[in-house]
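Thread: sanity check for a docking pose with nicotinamide-adenine-dinucleotide

Original post by kr_44:
Hi all, I'm comparing my docking run against an independent structure prediction. Below are the sequence and the ligand SMILES. Could someone generate the full complex and paste the structure tokens? I mainly care about where the ligand ends up relative to the chain.
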Amino acid sequence: MPTQQVTPVSEILAKIQSRQAKIGIIGLGYVGLPLGLLFSEEKFQVLGFDIDANKVNALNSGNSYISATSDYTRLKEVDAVIIAVPTPLNEYHEPDLSYITATGNAIAPNLQANHLVVLESTTYPGTTEEVLLPILEKGNKFGLRAARDGVSNGKVFFLTFSPEREDPGNTSVARKDIPKVVGGLDAQASELAGAMYNAIFRRVVRVSTPAAAEMTKLLENIYRCVNIALVNELKQLSMRMGIDIWEVIDAAATKPFGFHPFYPGPGLGGHCIPVDPFYLSWKAKEFDFRTKFIELAGEINVGMPYHVIASVANALNQKKKALNGSKILMLGMAYKKDIDDLRESPALTIIELLQKEGADVCYNDPYFPTVGRGRKYDLQMKSTPLTNLGQYDCALIVTDHSDYDYKKIVDESQLVVDTRNATKGIKSPKIVRC
Ligand SMILES: NC(=O)c1ccc[n+]([C@@H]2O[C@H](COP(=O)([O-])OP(=O)(O)OC[C@H]3O[C@@H](n4cnc5c(N)ncnc54)[C@H](O)[C@@H]3O)[C@@H](O)[C@H]2O)c1
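Reply from moderator J.T.:
Ran it for you. Here is the predicted complex with nicotinamide-adenine-dinucleotide included:
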């Protein structure tokens, strides 16, 4: 078995602190690429790894400071390996860890002594220790073990989980101002990861284990998911009672303590909130535990696009029209305003449901000139210009992009169904808020 030189942890730490350490990032997507850019802005050398040859070629042929490769043997060149690969759900709504295991299997034969390995992909508590660690320990060539209990004899690597907490499209908080949570397998792993992230984040928050860090991310997302479900339910009750839920939320939000506003909408979207909670409910079953809040919130949030369809049908009914055969212009495809992100967007479900009912659906979204094929849909649609709005039986606001002139939209349309309170402040009998 080849032997490796013993390097004290203090030396690795010094290498990180002096920006001499080279950072490897696996998975150059929404999370990995900006992270690599942050490190390179702080004068670290960054080598990106991705199985998508187009991404690798694009990065290498552009003017990026990050070089990229699909060749995992080049892990030899780096000191730290950050993993940011997808963690979706499979068709049964169960965690699909295949990207993590594939990445682990690709890293293992190229793992070097003293490598700092950090998993950033969102996942259930236990993944780092129960899934990634055994793959790395079993598959490496040097008999390396993950450092535990502060023991470092030159035959170890350091393992940490550190969740990504980015909020796409949020320009009010700079990425470096989002504290970075770090949970190492032992104190050395936490210290090394903490030092690395301290170079690009203002604050590092250390928790005691990788599982605590994994759970932290899930708590944050479940908190959002449950609170959004709560306002979605209360919105439906308020509508029946003739109360404007948005007015109520704004009033409640003036309380200086104990209340954080969440807003209702046409359904959950994005890569995280509709997906992550189910990682925990799946894992909970291993402990004979049912996560009732997650399931109830899921039920309410998944039902929201159906609520939208019923509201459009009712609004048309008031005008003696049927959904079947009506021309509907859907405004907004993205899952939230002012971003070009379509992942899990409720707009996709809404189009599908409208078409099923026989509606003739067009869409407009300045961020999506076309929508082709995704994992669960194949729409092949083109964004329709916002002209001649009077031709549609209904304009349906699904995403409240800031670019839209809502007053003009209301003035020119026959009927406007608004799922986001985007027409706030506009008074017109043509508007139906839902
Ligand atoms: N996008 C977000 O806003 C966000 C926020 C917080 C957390 N996360 C989490 O971060 C993780 C990554 O998400 P993302 O949005 O960046 O995903 P993404 O789909 O944008 O990017 C993932 C990248 O990984 C690459 N990849 C897949 N398998 C690989 C392998 N074996 N080796 C090398 N590269 C591989 C893909 O080609 C892709 O480029 C997920 O766990 C997600 O839940 C995402």
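The longest strand covers residues 156-161. Hope that helps with the comparison, let us know if your pose agrees.
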